[in-house]
């Protein structure tokens, strides 16, 4: 396995020059502190469980589901064309753009022989997609009746878009943020990622593609899946590297 060589460059700005790594290697934080991954799994699992119980028990959150499903698409139909383009963009950012970025990163990781990062991305995405297909057909919740602009016929709980953006964009932020020396830019990337994930979820509610609890359940599944899968993969490669060092 190729060594993880860090490429650095000096960037001149208002502050003294700073070395910034240009690679996309995993920081190994989950392997170092697996309690983080365990917390993510438990937190996401509990939230998903609570939302599922709320769905089957016709709990109070369903009132919010119906209110938003009756209100937001109606607002969308009365809005200008630019609103349609912006909200439709949320659909593509959560699907087609994610697929394109996965392909681009896969080519990059294979060329660089970054097997850990490739494994994290592929197992994270394809595993979560398989989990999504199983769960939506088991629960089999119908979509809101008034989908506008982009219509989907699959069951709606949990949202596949919400799962995908948490698993993928969250992973990118996890790789990038620890390598940024500036606190400001760390915060910027984190806030941008959260807003992007939030916007994609909101766009699916606004266009009637999902209920609110579908989106929240998707976020919960994405958090739980990311926590357990990325931690296990990092731990596996950490042990593998240790064995290789012992052999040398």
What does the model show?
There is one protein chain. The chain is mostly helical and about 250 residues long. It has one domain (about 30-245). It is about 70% helix and about 5% strand. It is built from nine helices and two strands; from the N terminus they run E-E-H-H-H-H-H-H-H-H-H. It has helices at about 30, 35-55, 60-80, 80-95, 95-110, 115-140, 160-175, 185-205, 210-245, and strands at about 10, 20. Strands 1-2 form a two-stranded antiparallel ribbon. A hairpin with a 6-residue loop joins strand 1 (about 10) and strand 2 (about 20). Helix 4 crosses helix 8 and helix 7 (about 160-175) packs antiparallel against helix 8. The protein is globular. It starts with 7 loop residues before the first strand and ends with a helix. Mean pLDDT is about 90; it is low at about 1-20.
Quick structural gist:
With 248 residues, the protein is mainly alpha-helical.
Q: What's the shape?
A: globular
Helix content: over 70%
Please summarize the sheet with the most strands: 2 strands, antiparallel
Distance between the termini: 13 Å
Number of strands: 2
Whole-angstrom Rg: 20 Å
Strand order of the biggest β-sheet: 1-2
Task: Give the low-pLDDT segments.
Answer: 1-21
Secondary-structure element string: EEHHHHHHHHH
How many helical stretches?
Answer: 9
Oligomer: single chain
Specify the structural class. mainly alpha
Mean pLDDT reading? 89
Number of domains: 1
Q: Report the portion of residues in β strands.
A: under 5%
């Amino acid at each position: 396995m190729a060594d993880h060589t860090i490429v650095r460059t000096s960037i001149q700005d208002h502050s003294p020059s700073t070395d910034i790594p240009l690679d996309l290697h995993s920081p190994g934080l989950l392997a170092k502190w697996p309690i983080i991954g365990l917390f993510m799994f438990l937190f996401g699992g509990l939230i998903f469980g609570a939302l599922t119980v709320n769905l089957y028990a016709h709990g109070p959150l369903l009132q919010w589901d119906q209110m938003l499903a009756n209100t937001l698409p109606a607002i969308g139909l009365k809005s200008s064309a630019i609103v349609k383009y912006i909200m439709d963009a949320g659909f593509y950012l959560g699907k087609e753009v994610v697929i394109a970025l996965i392909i681009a990163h896969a080519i990059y990781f294979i060329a660089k022989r970054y097997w850990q990062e490739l494994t994290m991305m592929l197992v994270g995405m394809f595993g979560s997609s398989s989990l999504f297909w199983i769960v939506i057909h088991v629960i089999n919740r119908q979509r809101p009746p008034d989908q506008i602009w982009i219509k989907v016929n699959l069951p709606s709980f949990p949202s596949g878009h919400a799962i995908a953006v948490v698993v993928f964009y969250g992973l990118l932020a996890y790789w990038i943020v620890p390598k940024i020396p500036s606190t400001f830019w760390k915060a910027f990337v984190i806030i941008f990622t959260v807003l992007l994930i939030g916007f994609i979820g909101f766009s699916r509610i606004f266009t009637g593609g999902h209920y609110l609890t579908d989106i929240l359940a998707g976020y919960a599944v994405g958090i739980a899946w990311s926590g357990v899968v990325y931690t296990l993969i990092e731990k596996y490669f950490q042990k593998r590297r240790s064995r290789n060092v012992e052999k040398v």
